[in-house]
Amino acid sequence: MAVERKGRAVCPGSYDPPTLGHLDIIARASEVFEQVTVAVVNQPVRKQTTLYTAEQRVAFITAEVEKHGNVQVKTFDTLIVDFARAEGANAIVKGLRAISDFEYEFEMNQLNRKMAPDIESIYMFASPQYTFLSSSGVKEIARFGGDVSDLVPAAVAARLGEDLNKN
Ligand code: ADP
Q: Is-cis flag, bond preceding 17, omega within 30?
């Protein structure tokens, strides 16, 4: 019997660029929730500048998630809880890799819970093969000509090295 997918989740992040680790979390969320909105940060929050514009990041992700049928990709530049409410979402889904993610997410969870107790934050552990994968790590490898083809979507891998060396 097919399991019923319920509720609506947002998956926030900078996705600069999206990696196979991000796409794995989005795919897993799309199996649990009826609808998933990938929320691409438009304003740099933690990082000063992004390599790709929000529109480029949305385009990269959209091309990879169309196959799921229940995933949309949008930009946001508000509090994530406000964006989640506007989407009618009852959950924020995030991936957890290492202890460092835990500390940051623990703090964010308390703050978001205080602002929006009606929206639950749900954490999915990174799949083992992606535990050490981050956008910043990928950029570092690509900047020095390393092969990132098994870390990011093919469309990203094809242009990352060139885009990084333009700056
Ligand atoms: P990064 O830290 O790589 O810049 P983002 O800020 O775009 O990532 O993160 C968006 C979300 O995706 C966060 O919840 C983050 O923990 C999660 N995430 C990032 N990389 C991975 C991965 N390799 N596996 C699982 N989750 C991940």
A: yes
